[in-house]
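User: Can you model how magnesium ion sits in this protein?
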Amino acid sequence: MTFRLTNTAKTYPDGTRALLSTKLTVKNGEIVSLLGPSGCGKTTLLRIIAGLETPDLGSDIWFDEDNVTSLPVERRNVGMVFQSYALFPNMSVRANIGYGLKMQKLSKPEIETRVSEVLEMCQLQKFSARAVNALSGGQRQRVALARAIAPRPRLLLLDEPLSALDASLRESLRDELAVLLREFNITAIFVTHDQDEAMAIADRVAVMSNGRIVQSGTPEELYRHPNSAFVAGFVGNAMRLDGKCTGSVLTLEGGGLRLPGEGSGNNVFVRAEDVRIDDNGSLCGQVETITFLGTHYRIGIKGITPNLLTSIFAGQSAPKVGQSVKVAIKPEALILLPAGEI
Amino acid sequence: MIKSKTKILQLTVTLTACAFLFVPIILSVLAGVTANYFQGISSGFTLKWVFRVWELYADSIFLSMRLAFSCLIMTLIIGLPAAYGLARNPGWLSRLLEEFISLPLAVPGLALALALLQLYGSMKGFRTSWTFILVGHVLYTMPFMVRSILAVLASIDLKTLEEGAATLGASPWQRFRDIVVPNAMPGILAGALTVVTLSIGEFNLTWMLHTPYLKTLPVGLADSYASMRLEVASAYTLVFFVLIVPLLMAMQWASARAQRISQ
Ligand SMILES: Nc1ncnc2c1ncn2[C@@H]1O[C@H](COP(=O)(O)OP(=O)(O)OP(=O)(O)O)[C@@H](O)[C@H]1O
Ligand SMILES: [Mg+2]
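Assistant: Here's the modeled complex, given as structure tokens:
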């Protein structure tokens, strides 16, 4: 199903403008992630799409050729996975998954077959007769997903489906979820504040900030060509190089850098993995912090920018704290963004 | 040694307390089946008095049953949606309403009855019908039903559960039936237990509202104490217990079961 939303905004009764006029299109079978910091309006947007929240006047939501803006939630045929899963404690796993099918008035045997099918896809056969309270967090997450997809919704919505799990489980379920969603071949919108999660699962990521979508694109596009300082910082943690641009040279506290183009009027950003400790580097700084992360070190260097400049160091022997180091950054690794906008 | 001593002490205290509660009841019940109370047990046992109670007060028994059952139905019909509404719309207005519903807890039954009499006393048909007592009982038991359901509903994330059901295609009525009621069941059962027991045992308010032709069990009990032989009054107590104890046990069992299921 193609999903389209135009001019959609939400002002809560207390005056909070949680969502400013927003446009979003999701192609058939596409998995889109809404990524943004806490409080930026992701859940609000998702709930408007589901029909759980009424958008401001003038908003328009289309499922294919149907305008569903004023359709109540129970008639929109969307599947939703809630952050807290919202499994029905008065029903078994099987009954939870079958509930949506029962609401569609399918026959008993038909419901049985469909539920069994979904149970198998989500590897939940063993737990089908259990009470939902007797499941682990990961199993509950899968039941919530199974319940949402069993009625074959036109659109699947997921609100931070992994955030209630602990870190190690989250990582393994993240990849599992990415595979499952593609297996279902379903159009899905998926909310998260974790960029790794968004990149691992989504075909396209829409970055949100302060109630609006600031940029949307494939994970690579966002990473390589952010259109604002916010996106550069939020996706891949780009650091700003605070200095003075003259022509195509940037002068920092710790030395000069060649820019890929005309620098004046631009802010310059770089990512930690592009900051290399190199004896032939043009920048000079002093090691302030070292963090060992197994496969690499993260090194904080002072004296180059007003804040610490972080470098990813993959070599065997890291420099010591206090040691002076030379730093090189390739011009093509620098991201230039027009100054003025935040 | 010390442990067993404290155990014995505990046991003694428990047994004493039980004896304190049960001995008067047993004596009273025994009096109801002795042929002549003043001659004591030696006069022999008889069921005469029990039958006599049945002859005299069968109406009271049926009236009380009917009242308790109707009261339960009314408190469910009004109390369940009320508790649901209060649980779904928390805020100062809901808290105020809850306090308002709970007022009959604080107002003495007599005062409540007096207010009802002042308001409806002149409506003759209503005043002399059993539904007049029913109104009193419903008012008096409603807070127990509402609060007991509200306590259960407040402990679950009802809003999200309902939203979950809504995304699966459930209409508001289906959500109420499939999600709200089953999850509120422990509270409903506990509330029902309280309502039925209170309605059957209620005296103050009922005594004020009753007419000579409308005596409930406790009112009949008072009447028999005042105007009958002691044996009849005692047999009445026996009948009262036979009726109410199995009821209490059944509902206790039901609510314990519901609680287990809900966990
Ligand atoms: N019912 C409400 N009434 C008033 N304001 C609300 C309501 N719900 C959310 N908000 C506000 O709207 C803004 C967006 O909230 P929303 O829940 O959409 O954020 P979010 O991006 O999902 O954040 P998180 O990552 O923390 O879940 C926040 O400032 C929040 O305080
Ligand atoms: Mg949220």
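A couple of observations from the model: Residues 48-262 of chain B form a domain with the MetI-like fold fold (CATH 1.10.3720.10). Chain B touches chain A through 22 residues (CB under 8 Å).
User: Helpful, thanks.
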